[in-house]
């Protein structure tokens, strides 16, 4: 039995989850997202966390809030990419950023190893 409690998702992670669902077609144009209170309870997070996730999705142009009714996946505007395509592009971009970040971290480690093997470089701060 696992003794550590399950970590609760943050707003960014909730937005990513919904973005993936929009990209996959689980939520399509005009579909209503889960109500904030019920979704917060289901995830074990505060209402504010879910609201922040919805704001992030709104800022990305994927959803729109309808006062007194809920949050809906935006309909595509003629000549503009639809929410499904936009969500897929954002998901792909996040994966590429993660890949590049990992590659850069590897390069930093290799440079540090080279510097340790070569020794201090003249003219470099701290050398």
Automatic annotation (TrEMBL):
Residues 8-76 form the HTH gntR-type domain. PROSITE patterns: HTH_GNTR (PS50949). SMART domains: HTH_GNTR. CDD domains: WHTH_GntR. Residues 90-117 form a coiled coil. The keyword Transferase does not apply. The keyword DNA-binding applies. Keywords: Coiled coil, DNA-binding, Transcription, Transcription regulation. InterPro entries: Bact_HTH_transcr_reg, Tscrpt_reg_HTH_GntR, WH-like_DNA-bd_sf, WH_DNA-bd_sf. Pfam families: GntR. This is HTH gntR-type domain-containing protein. It comes from Streptomyces luteireticuli.
């Amino acid at each position: 039995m696992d003794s550590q409690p399950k970590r609760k998702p943050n707003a960014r992670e909730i937005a990513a989850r919904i973005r993936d669902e929009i990209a996959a077609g689980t939520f399509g144009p005009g579909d209503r997202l889960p109500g904030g209170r019920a979704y917060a309870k289901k995830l074990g997070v505060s209402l504010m966390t879910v609201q922040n996730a919805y704001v992030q999705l709104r800022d990305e142009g994927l959803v729109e809030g309808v006062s007194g009714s809920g949050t809906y996946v935006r309909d595509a505007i003629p000549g503009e990419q639809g929410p499904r395509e936009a969500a897929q592009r954002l998901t792909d971009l996040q994966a590429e950023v993660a890949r590049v970040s990992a590659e850069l971290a590897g390069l930093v480690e290799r440079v540090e190893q080279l510097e340790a093997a070569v020794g201090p470089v003249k003219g470099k701060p701290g050398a």
